[in-house]
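Chain A, query sequence.
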Amino acid sequence: MSKYLVIVEETKTGYSAYSPDLPGCVATGNSKSEIILQIQEAIQFHIEGMREEGFALPEPHTEAIYCEA
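Chain A, predicted structure.
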């Protein structure tokens, strides 16, 4: 099982999330708890689709760090 980085951003109407390692895999929601469930489902659906189409799954390669300013 791979772990993919997910970026969560607050928007004017709620939240959005995406995984840089899975282009096109995005989700939106009204709350952080909703967006977490939505992006988990989106990642599973995205990976299932890639497998069905015979595509190789991308290896996770992105990282996140925080820098103080």
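The chain is about 30% helix and 15% strand. The radius of gyration is 13 Å.
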